[in-house]
Amino acid sequence: MAERRAFAQKISRTVAAEVRKQISGQYGGSPQLLKNLNIGGSVSHHTTVPLTEAVDPVDLEDYLITHPIAVESGPLRDLLEFPPDDIEVVYTPRECRTLVSAVPEESEMDPHVRDCVRSYTEDWAIVNRKYHKLGTGFNPNTLDKQKERQKGLPKQIFESDEAPDGNSYQDEQDDLKRRSMSIDDTPRGSWACSIFDLKNSLPDALLPNLLDRTPNEEIDHHNEDQRKSSRHKELFALHPAPDEEEPIERLSVPEVPKEHFGQRLLVKCLSLKFEIEIEPIFASLALYDVKEKKKISENFYFDLNSEQMKGMLRPHVPPAAISTLARSAIFSITYPSQDVFLVIKLEKVLQQGDIGECAEPYMIFKESDAAKNKEKLEKLKCQAEQFCQRLGKYRMPFAWTAIHLMNIVSSAGSLERDSTEGEVGTGERKGSWSERRNSSIVGRRSLERTTSGDEACNLTSFRPATLTVTNFFKQEGDRLSDEDLYKFLADMRRPSSVLRRLRPITAQLKIDISPAPENPHYCLTPELLQVKLYPDSRVRPTREILEFPARDVYVPNTTYRNLLYVYPQSLNFANRQGSARNITVKVQFMYGEDASNAMPVIFGKSSCPEFSKEAYTAVVYHNRSPDFHEEIKIKLPATLTDHHHLLFTFYHVSCQQKQNTPLETPVGYTWIPMLQNGRLKTGQFCLPVSLEKPPQAYSVLSPEVPLPGMKWVDNHKGVFNVEVVAVSSLHTQDPYLDKFFALVHALDEHMFPVRIGDMRIMENNLENELKSSISALNSSQLEPVVRFLHLLLDKLILLVVRPPVIAGQIVNLGQASFEAMASIINRLHKNLDGNQDQHGRNSLLASYIYYVFRLPNTYPNSPSPGPGGLGGSVHYATMARSAVRPASLNLNRSRSLSNSNPDISGTPTSPDDEVRSIIGSKGLDRSNSWVNTGGPKAAPWGSNPSPSAESTQATDRSCNRMSSHTETSSFLQTLTGRLPTKKLFHEELALQWVVCSGSVREAALQQAWFFFELMVKSMVHHLYFADKLDAPRKNRFPERFMDDVTALVSTIAGDIVSRFQKDTEMVERLNTSLAFFLNDLLSIMDRGFVFVLIKTCYKQVSSKLYSLTNPSNLASLRLDFLRIICSHEHYVTLNLPCSLLTPPASPSPSVSSATSQSSGFSTNVQDQKIANMFELSVPFRQQHYLAGLVLTELAVILDPDAEGLFGLHKKVINMVHNLLSSHDSDPRYADPQVKARVAMLYLPLIGVIMEAVPQLYDFTESHNQRGRPSCVAVDDYESEGGSMISQTVAMAIAGTSVPQLTRPSSFLHTSSSGRQHSTFSTESSRSLLICLLWVLKNADESVLQKWFTDLSVLQLNRLLDLLYLCVSCFEYKGKKVFERMNSLTFKKSKDMRAKLEEAILGSIGARQEMVRRSRGQLERSPSGSAFGSQENLRWRKDMTHWRQNTEKLDKSHKPARTSCPC
Length: 1462
Known about the structure:
- The model is unreliable at 1-17, 19-46, 177-186, 414-455, 858-980, 1143-1163, 1263-1315 and 1415-1462 (pLDDT under 50).
- Strand 17 (602-603) and strand 18 (611-612) form a beta hairpin.
- The chain is built from 47 helices and 30 strands.
- It is 36% helix and 12% strand.
- By secondary structure, it is α+β, with helices and mostly antiparallel strands.
């Protein structure tokens, strides 16, 4: 026994408890080294949540209340809560281009006009997240910003770059030469010289304290201070940003809605000179598109006559307004093409004789022969003066010419490129017709070479050109129509042009063509309003010419415009008896039948008053069936009545002066009523012409109606062709839109019956008509829908919020309006697909939400929601939700009504069971819905909400609106015995979305972003007007609304999970839309509730991931989802950075995670807290919820055994890199103390990267020849080199078997022990290492030191190898190596190989196994060490490369110490 005891005394005294502690320390010191390890039953009392499942989040609002932080002020205080001015509702006056706002002159306006004017003039209602630009979507560490920052850094000079060029052999030879200098080689007498020099030389400065005895701690402290001095504060500002496209989390602010302009062209008319000058000539310009056969601009009239010539017309022309003296114009071309011509037409004063006779003198007389033909010219001038005096107010067609616009632009562009020619500087070109013809042929041939003519037509950047047009063509009296003009223009582009053979009229028209400047001075709009920057009203203006786009332009109206263009086309008086040959048409806009009722609304042409009461067409001499080419522009009154009409009076003009013969004789009359059944009458008309004056009250009838006793030309046949075109932001010119607006305004005014078309709609039929008109909106043309988009959506939202009362019944139109909105936005998305951002958001709809949408009738200057707004008695429990139905409502229904779907029946006792059944029928996963969530407890929908500020809003009775929507109407109160309820738009929208089904639900899902953003803005506006932006978040919204949101999020998450393989594009849009929605909700709702919604989405995705063989697509969607949510500007605050890791109150309280086994053996509470900070433990993931999700995703995806996720490495690493880079440059976290708190959110990152060491790219290959393999077996890291005794023996002593690795998720397949790892790309590895260094640099040093001391030898070795890898990665290796790396980076050969492998290794299969096997064979190393040493090295403290190569490191670094290495 004694010998036995002596033997026992020599055995190591290691007891079982110590063995347990040591073994557990080796396995569990870093949570990521062996995840989810269960050692026997020693930690069975702890609840574990695998990393692949989301934990229950902390209730953030409660936590902040129950854990107040004792920080009064300072930078840390700002981390605790969102700033009070986080969200603001801003009313910004819309920018007005003109000095005076474009509004109707009339004071009395009908409801539709009033609504349109309000829509075009009211301020923008913008919800501004003040700190939004500090989110990760706007990370300032871009390549351009980094270049700017690096300019201020001191220039570093390295010895390696200063060394002479040459190979190492040459360097050795030079060194040998320097050392071979001996005394024998020194010339005689040089020693004396050397001693003399030595005596006279100055000594070097002494090194102070060189030989002093200094404690090591002091040296360390001094070195540490030196390392920190002059250090750049922002690490990521020096590190190149990852090569990413537009970050997915960036939502660009939509463009402000504004008036549409195409590419703008400035045309200046400089001079017009003929061979003879005998009379005034009047000119006009317009653009024509030959291919589309359409006039694409209004006319621009200009007058280049001399004062002498103008004086000939003085008796007929009143003083000219300055606006009619313009000689320059700005044309807008939305669709420039090779088929656009600038057509110039000339007119002259009417005279006796046809056009050919009148043009003859201009063709035969030359300016050089003026002296020889003096008498003839005098005679012609005398005749012209006579005609001007007698017929001065009439015109006749004279000549025309055309300029191929794109030929001018393209040749100007080529001139700009070729600067060798001498004439280029002036930019002036003269060309005959043949030269222009040839150049147009060149233009056509070059067009044929291009794929699309429109691509080459850029009008914004060509060189200004001065063009001299020398040839005009005589107008043919019988070929004046636009159809004839298009034939001429098409013919001009042919090589053998008919026009070339015609005899031209010689003239010189000089015009200057250039791109229009951005903000030209002295500019007038088409309505003659002065555009801003108009310093002097006496200066000759430039006119903006209204465009008639060749194809539809889809831009909403933003300015008031109400113009009418009348185009008389042809007249057939061949069968009219009597003399009617020199025919002109007088056009008047009348507001009554009397001759004095003509309105001065017709725009003047050139050198005349701005407006006149009448306009005359040009006369074709001796033609009974003339064509016309006139354009008459009219300013329409805002409010039209049945008596407004266009009156056409036909005159025979007597050109020859005879006795008893009047100058003009009326020969016919016709008219067009402006309104037909309340709609503006436009289009092509073929009108009969009356021989007599129309009778009284004719204006309300059409001339097609055979009035008794009237005589008509040609037996009442249509003989006068005229076209009427309206360019109006008041008149939709679409029957479906007109009907909808008419019915809505009839409700506003409570005026019945309503006449629409041939129908008279009575009040009892209004409900059906209203519903049918809402559904018929889908049949309307898209172009007018877009033009009136803002007003249309406003009206649909109004019908949702304030259901009308018709015949004593509240009509719920929420469902119909929701369907109409879903249909309209889907039409826009499908037809305007080029108008979308990277997230598929249509820019027109995004602009509407951001700038235009507001809660109906809420104005900024009213203390409450505003006149007729949401003030007064607000009833949240709408009809379906009220527990007791008010008996006073006279509703003729035998069943209870849904809130917005009266077709859903239910029992009076539980009126919302139908909603529950609908949601249930959609296959909602109840485990993920509001029933079993850890969030707010669901209240019965029928219960009344607790009284709050929502139900006690102040009312403003200053509204004048007499509509059936308004609660102030005593009529309705008498009729129904109760005021109609009003609804909050976001609540109604959520409910409608939850209960909808079929095609409506599909349409809403397709454009979910629109409804989400609409809902969020409505919520913010509601909080703003109810003064609840400062209220506790739990009291802001009723529980039933939160239930609806929960149900909505849950079902949409279900759609993403179930459809991600079928509808990839749609699901991607839906996923990002949902993420942005939750991101927005974090700013306005109960944040704990939003965390529960995030967990709901996570839970649904996780359950699906388990069953997928290739989970990368769904996991990628989840990464996008998480990245968008984490881009919130207050992401750090949401993670509770100042809270200590205490077990939070949750349904399943947990102290540690399966990833942190060391905590199971620790008896020190402080050690436990520090361990939790470095581990993805349950407390960490609960309290730092979003950071926990990010790091969990990183850990799971970087796991070498996570099959199918290899392609996501770069994506998840970029997400972490982007977050840390954003924190680094955030001015709110500039204080080191604050940055340390932020870094503590990422402490588990150290463990994650330590586990990933075998997979990191080896940056040391260029420094040691041995190099480590890119694939390292796990077994080599878990070898027994770091333990004192055999693991099997140790575990036997501990009373436990050897632990087995277990992984809970089915898609993380357990790998064989010798599994090879895939190497990360250089870019991903570098990003991971810079993230690690940022955390180490900014984290609290005392916390880091405490954790380092608790690490096992194995883990410390791995950490030090990791730091050595960081040094190898980021150290400066010399200019040559740097340049070589740049060239390699440019080629991206290795990265391309990695991308190719990622594409190949998408799923588990033969290809993947083959590639991995071949890689293992090719890259197998004799050693399993981290750096691939050829020696048989293990991870042992005495044989690690970091110790052997310390001489390569900076001497000031102490690698064995635990101070921050960066």
